[in-house]
C-alpha cells in the first residue's frame, strides 16, 4: 500500500468515525427531546385519567375552569378562567363566522383574521363570560332572546349586538373599487366594530340611567 492509499484510508476512517459520532449525537438529542416532551405532557395532563372539572360560578366572582387531566397522584392541571375561556371560544366562533360570510382565506390572511376575531371576542364574549360564567340559560336569555334583566346585563347585551352590527356595516366598502388602503381586510370591519361598540356603550349607559330613575320613582 503506497502513501496515497494510506492517506485515503485514513480519510475514510476519520470520515466514518465522524458520521458515527454525528448519528449518535442526533440520537441522544432525539431521546432527550422525547423525554422532555413526555415530561411536559405529564406535567400538563397529570396522568392517564382525563376529567373535565368546572367549578360553580357566581355572578361576578368565578373560580377558574379546571381543564387539567389529573389523577390521585398528581395536582398539576391546566386551568383557564371564564374570561380566558370566553376569549378563546369567542375568537373561534367569530373567525368561523367571518370565513363563512366571505372573509379572505389563506395563510397570508390568517394573522389578520385571528387578530380581528380576538378583537370581536373582547367585544362580545369576554364581558358575558366574566359576568355570566357558564350559565347557559343566562346566555340564551341575553343573546338569543335579547331579554336582559339587570343593568349589567344591558351593558353586556347592547354593546355586543351593536359591535356585530357595526362590523357588518363596516364590511360594505370592502368590495368597492375605490382602491383605498383602509378597504383591506379587516381594517374597515374593525373600525365598524369599534364604532358600533362605542355606540352600544353610550346607549347602555343611557338606558341604565333611565332604569335607575324609574326604579327610584317607583321606590318613592
Automatic annotation (TrEMBL):
The keyword Membrane applies. Pathway: Glycolipid biosynthesis; glycosylphosphatidylinositol-anchor biosynthesis. One of its GO terms (biological process) is GPI anchor biosynthetic process. Keywords: Endoplasmic reticulum, GPI-anchor biosynthesis, Membrane, Transmembrane, Transmembrane helix. InterPro entries: GPI_biosynthesis_protein_Pig-F. The chain crosses the membrane at residues 88-107, 113-132, 152-171, 191-210. It is a multi-pass membrane protein. It is found in: Endoplasmic reticulum membrane. This is Phosphatidylinositol-glycan biosynthesis class F protein.
Amino acid at each position: 500500500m503506497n502513501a496515497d492509499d494510506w492517506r485515503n484510508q485514513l480519510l475514510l476512517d476519520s470520515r466514518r468515525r465522524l458520521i458515527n459520532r454525528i448519528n449518535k449525537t442526533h440520537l441522544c438529542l432525539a431521546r432527550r427531546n422525547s423525554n422532555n416532551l413526555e415530561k411536559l405532557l405529564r406535567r400538563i395532563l397529570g396522568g392517564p385519567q382525563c376529567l373535565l372539572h368546572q367549578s360553580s360560578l357566581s355572578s361576578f366572582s368565578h373560580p377558574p375552569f379546571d381543564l387539567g387531566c389529573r389523577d390521585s397522584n398528581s395536582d398539576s392541571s391546566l386551568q383557564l378562567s371564564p374570561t380566558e375561556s370566553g376569549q378563546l371560544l369567542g375568537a373561534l366562533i367569530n373567525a368561523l363566522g367571518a370565513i363563512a360570510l366571505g372573509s379572505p382565506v389563506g395563510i397570508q390572511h390568517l394573522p389578520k383574521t385571528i387578530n380581528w376575531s380576538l378583537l370581536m371576542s373582547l367585544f362580545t364574549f369576554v364581558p358575558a363570560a366574566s359576568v355570566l360564567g357558564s350559565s347557559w340559560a343566562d346566555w340564551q336569555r341575553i343573546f338569543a332572546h335579547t331579554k336582559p334583566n339587570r343593568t349589567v346585563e344591558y351593558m353586556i347585551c347592547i354593546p355586543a349586538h351593536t359591535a356585530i352590527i357595526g362590523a357588518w356595516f363596516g364590511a360594505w366598502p370592502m368590495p368597492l373599487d375605490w382602491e383605498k388602503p383602509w378597504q383591506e381586510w379587516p381594517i374597515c370591519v374593525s373600525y365598524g366594530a369599534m364604532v358600533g361598540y362605542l355606540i352600544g356603550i353610550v346607549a347602555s349607559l343611557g338606558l341604565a340611567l333611565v332604569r335607575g330613575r324609574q326604579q327610584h320613582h317607583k321606590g318613592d
